[in-house]
Amino acid sequence: MEQANQLISEIIQGACDNIPSATWDSFSITIKALNKMIEIGAFYEEGGNMLSFDPEENGNDITMKIKSLREQMYRLSPGNGAWYSTYFTVDNTGKFQTEFDYDNKPEFEYTPSNEKFIDDLKTFPRDEALIPQWLHDLAGS
């Protein structure tokens, strides 16, 4: 778990380093992931306004850290499968919250093919009872 916590810290710090303001109040990162597809949305709040930003603008590749985090967390509890979405919220004091969603179908901006979801299940197998119904339906089994 120590390696997963380190990756979370690196992802948050990498994103924070790209906020184009020194007076932000909080920021959030929304991540949707499959084995070969990662989508990141990042917003910061400043003076009551929510503004988007690129969490990788300075070249700090948090996408590979996200991929590593997903793999590491899977290894900690392999029968549960890998998470599909995660949300990080950080305030300007450094306090943060995380939420990992293992059950709901991720709503990507560009919908992945069914094969991408099936590939993800093959890469990160789950105990039969933990395969969500939407994934059963999608896989046709």
Description:
Strands 3-2-1-4-5 form a five-stranded antiparallel β-sheet. α1 packs antiparallel against α2. By secondary structure, it is of the alpha+beta class. It is built from four helices and five strands. It has a single domain, classed as BH3703-like domains (Murine Class I Major Histocompatibility Complex, H2-DB, Chain A, domain 1, 2-Layer Sandwich), CATH 3.30.500. β1 and β2 form a beta hairpin. The model has no long low-confidence stretch (mean pLDDT 94).
Number of helices: 4
Q: How many domains in all? A: 1
Distance between the termini: 33 Å
The CATH homologous superfamily is named BH3703-like domains
Q: Strand fraction band?
A: 25-35%
What attributes characterize this protein structure?
141 residues, alpha+beta, Murine Class I Major Histocompatibility Complex, H2-DB, Chain A, domain 1, 5-stranded antiparallel sheet, 5 strands, 33% helix
Would you kindly provide a brief summary of this structure?
With about 140 residues, the chain is an alpha+beta fold. It has helices at about 1-15, 60-75, 115-125, 135-140; strands spanning about 25-35, 35-45, 50, 85-90, 95-100.
Topology summary:
Blueprint: H1 2-16, E1 26-34, E2 37-46, E3 49-52, H2 62-76, E4 85-91, E5 96-101, H3 114-123, H4 133-139
Antiparallel strand pairs: 1-2, 1-4, 2-3, 4-5
